[in-house]
Design goal:
transmembrane; membrane; about 55 residues; about 0% strand; rod-shaped; 1 helix; mainly alpha; transmembrane helix
Amino acid sequence: MKMNKEFIQCFLDGFRTGVFEAISIIIMGLTTACVIFGLLDLLLFLFHVLRLLA
């Protein structure tokens, strides 16, 4: 029974770590996407300004 309890504890710890890693990966992915879209938006804006000036 003692081994079973340790196994459950180990499983819960692993589950928590896995969930935390998944969340951090998702957050990093969203941040990267936001940065990329922000840069694209900036490039489009600059292109538009250059066209108006030309």
